Amino acid sequence: MTYALLRYDDASLPPEGRWFLWQWGHVFGLDAAVSLSVRELLKELGMTSRHGQHALNKLKGLGAIIATSKPTGRGRPSYEYRLSPTFLKRLATFPDDEPVLAEDINRLGNSEHVNDEATEQDVDADHDASLGNLLDGQTRQVRLSLANRWVLMVLLAHANENGTVMEMPGIRLQRLTGLSSNRWLSQRRKLHALGVLPRYQRGRPGHWKGLTLPMIHYLNLSHPCLNRPSQPAIQVELLPRNTFDPDTSMTEAALTALLRAAETHATQPEQFERAMQLQHFREFSAAVWAVVGTLPNTYEVMAWLRTHVHGAATQLLNTAWEELKTDKATVETPIETVVQGLEHALDHPLIAIGAKAMRENNDGGNALATSSNDSASQAIPNEQGADYRAIWVKVLYDLAHRLAKTRQLDLLREYDGSQTSMPDPSRLTYELIAVTSPGTSETNWRDIRFWRLCGYWSRCDEPTTAPAPPVVLLIWERIVLPKISTPRPPVSGSQVPSPVLSAAENSPDLKEQRGEPVKVKRKLSTHGRKRGINTRKKSD
Questions:
Q1: Which of 75, 96, 117 is the last residue in one of the domains?
Q2: Contact at 8 Å (CB) between 285 and 238?
Q3: What is the number of domains present in the chain?
Q4: What is the pLDDT of residues 31-60, one digit of tens each?
Q5: Count of CB atoms within 10 A of residue 89's CB?
Q6: Is 323 inside any structural domain?
Q7: What is the pTM of this model?
Q8: Residue 414 to residue 431: CA distance in whole angstroms
Q9: Exposed/middle/buried for 150, CB within 10 Å: 0-12, 13-18, 19+?
Q10: Strand pairing category for 448-457 and 428-437
Q11: 463, exposed or middle or buried, with CB in 10 Å at 0-12, 13-18, 19+?
Q12: pLDDT in tens, 82-125
């Protein structure tokens, strides 16, 4: 029942108390009763006296732990500790199934790897209180504290195989971790500075038709803080070419272009063509654009859909490598397990509200009803009367297939032409994770955001010798888009379009000679009133 602690929704239980209960469950078992002194108990749980004593007192105050005094004669008093039946009954109401990233959670939750404080010098509570803070500020910035570990464990418990956490606003994370608002923001800033939480959505979540839109957090699963026993065999860095322009790569902006194309399909043909050139979408029918256009073109919706595309793409690479290679996993002949995963992921209120909006929209209903005669409807068959969610599943599967196929071609191209000992990419397990690199003076100190495809050895194929450094491949996948020429107003009478003037020709003096209006910048006077101070002299 220990995994239920990661889903225990109660803001009154602090992270130190949750860590205490986690260690209790792994050392003794949640149903066990223990007769030990406080010092012996904390030693068994691998906690310092400062954190352990505070957590124990808090748990006793909340009624989660019952302590019964046992007579032992002279010496330190001994107690029998056990978890209260009321707490165990409430804990049983939360799911206890094993998360996808359970191995990473168990490593972080192992008390032997905690570097929170200098526990070797923590002899007893009195001595620990006199030592104070044993770590300087710089050391504390690069080490995971006990609260950092618990926050990471909660995020990992709700993450998918790529380390993406969905449906997790800040207020819910506060209830799952027991942190106050300010303390949660501090924890998030530290994890972001360390690089283990490279991206997260700031501010409050958006709303659409009464629904709170999902918030996304991205974890860097290849970060050293997670202490994974094996490092990637292949590491593909999917980099943008220009950090000053919006990233238009397939991995980053596929859903942005899709939502933009649906938004401009009927009203802005030039913008629609530009979005189509970005990703080379299929010639979808009017029914598909009507379905896609029902969802709002916001960051929350785009990131939520992109997460499902990335998950399906890595699933295709991990389970259908040969089918991808021989073109047997296309949208016409999809992999059933991937389709089922998308269907389960899209069983969501956002899609249900979109379907309701589609039914209420007469134009959308007509588009669905009349799309069978459209020659472009062959891209996604059987659209007439099709389920709203089924069309979304096919669209996302198509994007995931194209992303997985492109990455597979990159890996095979490097493997065939490699002169080094590059591992066979077909024998690896892949994860697509978000990475943020600190900015430099060349990027105007803005962080560089990109994606990393990590390929790990399977347990049966992992070499027995010392692992070699990962083979790093750099791929700049940004697509250069043509600029859209804005139409000029028609020329009337004897007016002729003015030529493009240089900066010198646009100077105020030459503009005044040509008789053009000159915008004069008002020069501020150094006298008079400044910052509300009256500078007039007082009369005698």
A1: 96
A2: no
A3: 2
A4: 888 888 888 888 888 888 888 888 999 999
A5: 9
A6: yes
A7: 0.78
A8: 18
A9: buried
A10: antiparallel
A11: exposed
A12: 999 999 999 999 999 999 999 999 999 886 555 444 333 333 33
